[in-house]
Amino acid sequence: MGTRTERSLVIQGDVDKADDIVVFLPPAGTVSSPYLPIGTLLQDTLPTVHCETPGRGRLANEEAPGSVHSAADRWAADLAEIVPGRRLHFFGHSLGALYAYELTLRLESRPHSEVGSLSVSGAREPGSSPRSLLATAFAALRAPDRQEGAGEHWMDRDLRMRGEYRTAHQVVRAPLALLCGASDPFATPGEMERWKDFTSGPYLGMFTFRGGHDYYLSGEQAIADVISRIVGHSRHPELSPHPE
Question: What global pTM score does this model have?
C-alpha cells in the first residue's frame, strides 16, 4: 500500500474507491503512527487512515491540542473533508481509545457520516481514573518516537490530557470490539468489559493477544486478521462468534 498525507491524516491505500476504512488513533507519546506495519497487512480493499497529533513531527508548526476533545474536533473535521461518506472503523489504543470514542460521538451526530465499528485497545472505560504511578513508570521506560528528546515532552503532555479528560458518559451506537494484551497492567480484559456500557450497539467480542501494554508492536499479522474480522462482523453482528 502506498501512503500520502492530507492535513492531519496519513492515508495508506486507495480510500477513494473504498466503502470501509480503518482509522487508527495514536497512543500517548507518539509522533508518527505505530500502526503502519499493520496497515500494510490488511487487504487492498481495506485502506487505512492514521491520525497524527498537531504540534509534533511533520505538523510541528501547528498548534498542539490542549485536550482529548480538541484533538478529536480536529480529526473529525479532517475525516469529514477527506473521506466523506465512508464507513469508518476506529481503532484506538490506550489514550487513542479515548480519541476513538470521542470521534465516534462526533461523527455519529453528523449527517453523511457512518461509524462501522469502535475497536478499543489497552484502555479502561471513559471516566476511569488514571493510574498515576503506573503511568509515570510507563513514561520513564517506554521509548516513544523522538526528535532531539522531544518525545518525553510529548508523553508528558499526552499523560496530562489523559488525566484531565472528562466525559459526559454518552452512549454511542457503533458495534464494539475489545482488544487487550494478556499481561497488560493498565487495562485487564475484565476491566475493559466496562466499555460495554458506552455503546447501545452490538458487542463483537474480546480479542486477547500475547504481551503487555504494547502488544500491538509485535504479531502484526494476527492483529490485522482480527481487524479484518471486526470489519466483516460489524456488517452482520448477529453472526459474530464473540471470542473471549
Answer: 0.91
Residue 165 grid cell: 479528560
Q: Where are the alpha helices (DSSP H) in the chain?
A: 36-39, 68-82, 95-108, 132-141, 150-164, 189-192, 220-235
Q: Identify the H or E element spanning 207.
A: strand 203-209
Query: What's the confidence (pLDDT) of residue 16?
Result: 92
Q: Name which of 8-22, 54-68, 124-138, 161-175 the model is least confident about.
A: 124-138
Read off the pLDDT of residues 113-156 as tens digits, 9 standing for 90 and up.
Answer: 899 999 999 999 999 987 654 555 455 545 444 444 445 588 88
Contact criterion met (CB below 8 Å) for 1 and 47: yes
CA gap 146, 107 in Å, rounded: 32
Amino acid at 36: L
12 and 91 in contact (C-beta within 8 Å)? Answer: no
189: cell is 480484559
d(CA 18, CA 44): 9
Determine if residue 148 is left, alpha or beta; phi over 0 gives left, psi from -120 to 50 gives alpha, anything else beta. left
Query: Once rounded to an integer, what is the mean pLDDT over residues 165-178?
Result: 96
- Chain-centre distance of CA 204, in angstroms? 16
